[in-house]
Amino acid sequence: MAKKIAKLNKPLNNRIIGHGEEAVDQLLANPLNFRLHPDNQQQALAGAIDDIGFIRSVTVNQRTGRVVDGHLRVTLAARSGVETLPVEYVDLDEAEEAQALLSLDPIAAMAASDKAKLDELMRAVQSDDERVQAMISELAEHEGMFDLLSLDELADKYGETDERDFWPVIRVQVSPETMAKYEAIMDSLQGDEAEKFDALVSGYELS
Hints:
By secondary structure, this protein is an alpha+beta fold. It has helices spanning 39-52, 71-79, 94-109, 115-124, 130-142, 151-158, 176-188, 193-202, and strands spanning 16-23, 58-61, 66-69, 84-90. Strand 2 (58-61) and strand 3 form a beta hairpin. Helix 1 (39-52) crosses helix 5 (130-142). The longest helix has 16 residues, at 94-109. It is globular. It starts with 15 loop residues before the first strand and ends in a 5-residue tail after the last helix.
């Protein structure tokens, strides 16, 4: 059976109804937004905006006044004293708004990577911002790019790097009680986060 080619089955229904600016403190976070933004993502976006500016408007559903896309951009702006942001208005009912929230990021995340083009793109980016450099390093690691870019090449192309830019990142979900114990132990140790964690795990021997 021939593979079915993806295409639109209905006439294009443009739901974008306008553009404008909104006061940051008036932009309403969507109560159904399920996206959490870890520190590395926040740092990467802040670094990118500092480097090249604000290039993507926040999407707001005019019917409800709620943000559909751009929650982290709004959060960073609010923290940084930015008063207004450019917005794109869409016209959706509440069920459509929920579907938009559910589908926007996950559909983008389904994209595969052309590693040769990604390699070329990463080589073209020049940034002195350490947050952007860390993002590039993480992206290279996630995409298995270290066979294409050596650590020396990464440093040459993307600026001065630290050995720790290429260390593995541990993410684990634990109970609030376990987190409280972990934070108490970490507070009692000396050094930075990596040194404290090393001291913590070094105190335990596997039997």
